[in-house]
Amino acid sequence: MLIPIEEHELLVFWVQLFVLLGFAHALGWAMRRIGLPSVIGQLLAGLVLGPSVFGEIWSSGFEWFLPMEHGEIQSAALLSVAWVGIALLLVVTGFETDLGLIQKLGKPAALVTAGSLFVPLAAGLAVGYLLPSSFLGATADRTTFALFVALALSVSSLAVVAKILSEMGLMRRDFGQITIAAGMANDVVGWLLLGVFTGLASSAEGEGGGAIDIVITVVGMLAFVVLALTVGQRAVDSMLRRVRSEGSNVSGALTVAVMFMLGFGVITQWLGVEAVLGAFVAGIILHRSRFQQKEVLHQIEGLTFAFFAPVFFATAGLRLDLTTLNSAEALVWTVIVVAVGIAFKFAGAYGGGRSAGLSHRAGLALGAGLNARGALEIVIGTVALTLGVFNTTSFTVIVLVPVVTSVFASVSLRYVVRDFAGTDDEIARLEREKALSTNLVVRNSRLLLPSRGRPASIAMAQVMHFAWPNEAGATVLAVDVDGDADLTPLENVLHDRDLEVRRSKDDDAVAAIVAESKLGFGVIGIGVDETESGVITSLVDGVLSESPVPVVIVRRARNLEGPLPGAFSRAVVPVGRSLGSRAAQEIAFNLSANLGTEIQLAHVVAQARPSQRWMPFITQQAHDEVSAEVGARLLWQAVDQARELGVEAHPNSLSGAATAPEIVRFVEEAEADLVVLGAVLRRLDDHPSLGPTVERVLAQCDATVVVVVVPVDL
Fold it and tell me: Which pTM value belongs to this model?
């Protein structure tokens, strides 16, 4: 039965949220103004509003704000919000965790994890044995006390680490992903060891908690992770696919995300490991689903960073009571504990990175980043205090560790990474990711490649394969009526990417393609042998009429004797001001980066005389000069865009009465075997039109022609 909260208690709860959130954002803003992450200000907000400052300045006001009477109810309400906050924060972290990249960095990640855990664990154990007896709880023995101290000094906080890296824009750096991997391992091992040590402490007091329960927890957690990444992944894919079947549905996808976060949290909490680890795993598999909608992450991030995360970090700082450190001995040992925690965590992470072959600067960055502690240390201190292993003094020291180390991690990490660009491979990867993030069509999103098994589909598959990054998966959808199309050549072309081959059960090929395109694809690629009535073919006509995503049409060269196209040695790319032209440049430049295709840019300056009705004061010469200047600017912008991908593009300014004949003539003169151009979709007499220039090039040019059609609302 639900017990209602009294009016006064409810008022205090709302005041707590209002004040905590206000102070957290204010101090977070202040920290950003001086170049530090906002998480430091959010932690300090709790310290200011806690017994150390607010409680000393205005004791009666503090008693009203955090009352002793009915304190359990108030604390439970506030901490519930805080726990939801950390769960959502770890879902966001899971979204940004790249398991593929971590796998590539497997050895460094493993060695950094081992060093960052075991070195400070050993140092913390020594400190635990050396601390004076005045730090021990009433029922603690020295060994159990030392184990809890060692655990608190050894584990990093995935939530705090992720927040610091995210705010500094370092999440996608190599050391950033290693830090996340090590932070994840730190959290998992930390929760498991907390269960082990709690069991030992309870056994010492005659309260059970034997080895069998510990083994069940460890085995259960391993089984959960394996099942989540296999069975759970398929369940997420199935539900998100159903949600997207009618197109974009952010609220439905958000519901799936929240339900899996809560469901996985229930499982890990039941296993004896905190629910937040389940939320982190949920974030990973939600991100891995190809049916996920990017707007979902934005929705979760907005709510988390605006409300839940600041409340969580402020609540963590609220537990700190510096008034218990009222003796010289307590202060000296506080400094020693914090210093040991920072120094040996830094040394362990740095040593692990260096032993894995990472650079000196990367090792320093790992040592700085993994020094951040957070909620787990607070939980460790709370559990130890509840069991009588810690007293109020040792509890305060342990809770102080995450505040100081988070400040240290932020300041030292910012100093270490200053002017540190990383290895050549890392720089190239980051530049490629930056370029992909700003592209219109060539991105990491999945490719939909409908095919009837004809040679034109092979040409299309080659263009798409060499223009799109390998991280982009592909789905080949057979839309042949008889169901006997041979898709083996397409599979061979696309063999080294995540590939799915499906056969449509719908006799209507257009309906099948459009329905499939709504399931999270970034682009549709269609190969055609020759044009028909309508735009190109009836199939292309239908897809263009209804497709919600860009469509890349590849018309195979007319002079090929075999089923495979040439190697695309030279490409002509018409340059204009439309989005379609920009998208065409993306495709051509990426093809060149992967195949070495020579790029010839072409801009046609039309010689048409300006209308005297609308521009009576503009002469033909002035018109031509302006057009030539605009064309030159567009060409050099395209040259700069090509250089960002390491491609050399050659600009050519053409002149003629009409654009299409000049392009066809230039293709023949340059002996190009590929033309890549963009199109603006128009509708004439209920049929899509790509414009006279594109349609004439398709009709008159013998080389392979690639046309990218970008929706107006992209």
Answer: 0.69
